Amino acid sequence: MSNCFELQKNKLIWNGDLSELKSYVAETLNINGKWKSPSGGRWLFTSDALSITWYCKSKTVLFQGPRGSEVADSLKRNIDASRTVIVKNAELNIATPAASERRNESIDNQYRLSFNNSNSSMFDRSSNTTTTINRSDSDTSEGKANGQE
Fold first, then answer.
1. Are the CB atoms for 77 and 5 separated by under 8 Å?
2. Bias category Low complexity: which stretches (predicted)?
3. How far apart are CA 100 and CA 97, in angstroms?
4. Most buried by CB count within 10 Å: which residue of 8, 36, 80, 133?
5. CATH for the stretch 5-92
6. Nearest to 24 by CA among 6, 5, 8
7. Where are the domains of the chain?
8. The dihedral of CA 139, 140, 144, 148: what is its sign?
9. pLDDT per position as a tens digit, 54-74
10. How many other CB atoms sit within 10 Å of the CB of residue 14?
11. Does the predicted model carry a pTM greater than 0.85?
């Protein structure tokens, strides 16, 4: 159920409904307290250790009280760790086609790099340079072009 939380601009967002948030607080955080809606559009949970405010429209959740920072920081760390795992898994699932599966059309075997030297003091500003690098099946993904590193 903690997957209902996400982080947007360093704010915790609850994507579930009120009953799911109540269950999360009672079961996962194991904190008993009272829920009330002091004004339209927000819900407030209070206990001795924690105060939670959930704004229904923006889905923003604020944690306050003695355990507020601890809970919020823990959730943010878990969200960041989940993002890292997702990115690592995505990288692991990327497959590179075998050389025999690659098309040999000339357009697929060339990369065109254009350098506009107007903003660089290292080059003659009076000219633009275009360089074509041909890629062959023996090139690796580590930046080798025509056998050069």
1. no
2. 124-135
3. 8
4. 133
5. 3.30.310
6. 5
7. 5-92
8. negative
9. 999 999 999 999 999 999 999
10. 20
11. no
